[in-house]
Amidohydrolase (Parvularcula marina), 383 residues
Amino acid sequence: MSDTEDLIRWRRHLHAHPETAFEEVETAKMVADLLTSFGIEVTTGIGGTGVVGVLKRGDGPNVGLRADMDALPIREKNEFSHASTHDGKMHACGHDGHTTMLLGAARELAAMDDWAGTITFIFQPAEENEGGAIAMIEDGLFERFPVDAVFGLHNWPGLPAGQFTVRAGPMMAAYDIFEIRLTGRGAHAAMPHLGTDTLVAAAQLVTELQTLVSRRVNPLHPAVVSVTQIHGGDAYNVLPAESIIRGCVRTFHDEARSVIRDVMAEMAEAVATTAGLTASVDYDQRYVATVNSEAETALAKRAAGDALGPDAIVEGVDPSMGSEDFGAMLEAKPGAYVWLGNDHPAGENFGLHHDRYDFNDEILEPGVRYWVSLARRFLEERG
């Protein structure tokens, strides 16, 4: 079986057996077993289900390469042979491909002896919403494995297959979540004057929240506030005593993040007071922005050019308001996070987190080449 056939087999096995945040037991075992078979020293259980492989060739710098392993709680709609066998769980973001590409690079780098230094392969759990990067860091990731820089990669629908893009500075937005709870007095729907209507207040507050970005945040600071849930009531003829609003916030600047958090609480209190209700706001800052360092971004571009040719680099792509917990690693270490184009050359392309998404196996080998080129170039330039 060829190396490429191995990659496809690994990737499709992972796709068929998805595991969600901090449940990546079998995925982690597969990763650890393969790394061990390549002759790489393996440590498991970091940050819960994280796996780290260390490949050392004498003295020299230490470069960290990171892939995420977790799936999403989505019921897959695909019917191909490698569709999810775990009902309600799906690799809808391509982490099966990310894991496979880094495994392929680990195999190739382990077979080479013409480089010096240390390559640290970081297989991270729970990127999707649960902060696996933070869990690994808090579990001593960079104290136990003192890398000089750390790099990440994500497939990117909308970019041609095999094309790379990366930019210095902000690449992905910070991510926060909020819950606003409005509490009052329930009543018969035919007698609204005997209660305090939490649903009307919730509707008013959702509208008010739309002015946070347009009127309270510096227009030069990108931000998104999205209400994604409204819960209240169980009957057609009852005004509920409580309504709940939930959603998320995306920002690049700390000032915008603080303004949104503080003004959201003020708005909730004002609407509640006017309606005769009480309001509580739970605002949770989850992920920092993913911000690439200048030198490492330039190195990543050189490595991608070496691996795939200069025409593979797409310049001028805007950052995304999506989020990624790799930002926590880039707070701790310099590094860069790149996007690898994932568009299927034929057929319909589905975006990340779609129930019919599938990773494009044609970019597995280009991804491996990039990781190998990046590791070798980093060790050579920094050695």
